[in-house]
Write a structure and sequence with these properties.
With 626 residues, this protein is α/β, with parallel strands linked by helices. It contains 23 helices and 20 strands. The chain has three domains: 298 residues, TIM Barrel (Alpha-Beta Barrel), CATH 3.20.20.70; 233 residues, 2-enoyl-CoA Hydratase, Chain A, domain 1; 62 residues. 42% of the residues lie in helices and 14% in strands. Helix 16 crosses helix 17. The two termini are 36 Å apart. The relative contact order is 0.07.
Length: 626
């Protein structure tokens, strides 16, 4: 291993990572996050902030968090960890001191606009506040760390003058801060910006008194940290799972992920003292708790490699597609193959009937996947002989027909939210219909964009036979089947075959006895492996040549045609998409260039995988957008 000086990592996830999240995170989750991070080898953790609740509602529970931190400070196994808190003024310092804080951070912006928006004061006033805090903290025996925000660019003023950063950094050090962290709040910095800034600062400030705090908005955080290291910095701020952002800088997406930083530095032979495996587990855990996609490429790859197992297949009949199990829930499986995710309902003994818990979990899952740019296609299927038999109407179930009014309302809300989440996801959704479906299961199939089915699949809406109505699903069944077919099927409650719907173009492909796959048929018999082959045929022949962003915008056009036919709102959507297209988008540039070169099709999987910002080869994690 190369003999290089070790670095010091300041973990800011519990404070900077959580502060911009709108939905309040339970205090016990915050405390558990800090406890877990304390076992990884990290020696500096930002725990919370003592800013007023009206500024940062997310961290209003700072007293409760610090009560737990005090116990950690006194515990033998975590006593060597330094826990810091951010304070905006003298009042915040005194509250932090009362709560047992032993280290605080003060922050100042070098630009007037950001200072007034973030701290409601001028730069000069901000420095004076910091001076008051530092002076009092030293009297109390509390260490003080300084933070300078917007060191490269201000979201309100534009590029930041390096000499303005120097002025603030020198002032913080002179008043007693032991170190100054340089914050790229907007995440707009590049290696060139780092070199330009440090060329000014290092003339007057020793490198060991500076730290790098890089946001990853444009995917430059790791490169910026490496550049800063080569120029002499040895302390870096980062956030587990890439959590973070700034409420006053809307474009700032997240911090440098601690997993990515540790992976990079250790790969360079630079000791961090951090257990990367533990860190990856924590990153996965906290993002799952928050319902957010993975924010660390390295962490996602490490977690997936260590925790996933191959999906089970039928003996003697290996599907063409190989799926990796991402999550095994008691009621569903989440699997992945490259840019395609498959959700398999996993209640085969109950016909994959939907429970209220399933509705909630599946809705959250679709909402999370909709924000993950590395996912191009979402497949929905079932385990066993049924696709989905609708809501669980068992006598003892919470969704039973005889349930009380509150339960009925919860059932309606759950169904409605799930169907809306699927309908509005920007990715192309595919129903892989493995068998018969009833009631709400039929709705699940036809809320999806594309339907591929086994030859024995059927659809039955038996609600009228039970004295019920197909209320929630009617919106999507009528939309996809057409009024005539849907009306007759709903009023009679009869079983509709997949062949009948295939003839009118509602089902887009089915398995059959044909020996060669085509748009309408694929491979032999109706087994699940052959349904997977039908899916792969559709993906390889058609969808891999459909640009993902263009596909998402096309879905907007289709949705507008259904929701706003003839309305001004439809015209607005058309205009917005047209302007995006002719801007031109980068996808349009790539596609046009290929067409002019004589290429009829573009392999969009290859285009995205070829980017430096893509994830590992098995696709377990996020990819940044084009």
């Amino acid at each position: 291993m190369i003999d290089r000086p070790a670095v010091r990592i300041v973990e800011v996830g519990p404070r900077d990572g959580l502060q911009a999240i709108e939905e309040i995170v339970p205090t016990e989750i915050k405390i558990e996050l800090i406890k877990r991070l304390s076992t990884t080898g990290l020696r500096c953790i930002e725990a919370t902030s003592f800013a007023p609740q009206r500024w940062i509602p997310q961290l209003a529970d700072h007293d409760a968090v610090m009560h737990a931190v005090r116990e950690m400070q006194d515990a033998a196994d975590t006593s060597s960890v330094r826990y810091s808190v951010l304070v905006p003024n003298l009042r915040g310092l005194l509250a932090a001191a009362d709560a047992g804080a032993r280290e605080v951070g003060v922050f100042v912006s070098p630009t007037e606009a950001f200072s007034r928006r973030n701290s409601n004061c001028s730069v000069k006033e901000g420095l004076e506040r910091a001076r008051e805090v530092t002076q009092k903290a030293r009297e109390l025996g509390i260490h003080v760390r300084g933070y300078v925000s917007c060191v490269f660019s201000c979201p309100f003023e534009g590029p930041t003058n390096p000499h303005d950063v120097l002025t603030v950094a020198q002032a913080l050090l002179s008043m007693g801060c032991y170190e100054v962290s340089l914050g790229d709040t907007t995440g707009s910095g590049t290696s060139a910006h780092v070199r330009r800034l440090l060329a000014v600062l290092l003339k007057y400030i020793p490198a060991h008194r500076l730290a790098g705090h890089f946001h990853d908005t444009y995917g430059q955080a790791v490169a910026n940290a490496v550049t800063a290291y080569e120029l002499g910095l040895r302390t870096f701020d980062s956030s587990v799972g890439g959590l973070g952002g700034c409420p006053y800088s809307p474009e700032a997406k997240g911090n440098l992920a601690t997993e990515d930083l540790v992976y990079t530095l250790e790969g360079m032979g630079i000791a961090t003292g951090v257990d990367l495996q533990k860190l990856a587990d924590i990153g996965h855990w906290i993002n799952e708790k928050l319902g957010k996609p993975e924010g660390s490429r390295a962490g996602s790859a490490i977690y997936s490699k260590r925790n996933t197992v191959p999906a089970k297949t039928s003996p003697g009949c290996q599907p063409t597609m190989t799926w990796t199990m991402v999550k095994q829930d008691p009621e569903y499986q989440l699997l992945r193959n490259g840019s395609t995710v498959k959700i398999a309902l996993d209640r085969p003994r109950n016909g994959n009937a939907l429970t209220r818990t399933m509705l909630t979990h599946l809705t959250t899952l679709f909402e999370t996947l909709s924000k993950d740019p590395s996912v191009f296609h979402i497949v929905l299927t079932g385990k066993g002989k049924y696709f989905c038999t609708g809501m669980d109407l068992s006598g003892g179930g919470a969704t039973a027909a005889g349930a009380d009014a509150a339960s009925k309302q919860a059932q309606f809300d759950g169904l409605y939210k799930l169907f809306e989440a699927i309908d509005r996801t920007p990715q192309t959704t595919i129903a892989l219909i493995n068998g018969p479906s009833y009631g709400g299961g039929t709705g699940l199939a036809f809320v999806c964009d594309i339907r591929l089915a086994q030859a024995n699949a059927t659809f039955t809406m038996t609600e009228v036979k039970l004295g019920l109505c197909p209320a929630t699903i009617s919106k999507f069944v009528v939309r996809e089947w057409g009024v005539g077919i849907a009306r007759e099927a709903m009023l009679t409650g009869r079983t509709v075959t997949v062949q009948e719907l295939h003839r009118v173009g509602v089902i887009h492909a089915i398995t059959s006895s044909s020996s060669s796959p085509s748009f309408s048929t694929a491979v032999v018999d109706g087994s699940q492996p052959n349904l997977d082959r039908l899916l792969q045929h559709h993906l390889d022949k058609y969808l891999r040549h459909a640009a993902p962003q263009a596909s998402a915008r096309t879905k907007e056009l289709v949705a507008a045609a259904w929701r706003y036919t003839g309305d001004d709102r439809q015209d607005k959507v058309i205009k917005d998409v047209f302007e995006w297209m002719i801007a031109p988008s980068e996808e349009a540039q790539i596609g046009t260039k290929a067409f002019r070169a004589g290429k009829k099709e573009v392999d969009w999987y290859g285009v995205y995988q070829g980017r430096k910002s893509t994830t590992d080869n098995d696709g377990q994690g996020r990819k940044s957008k084009l």
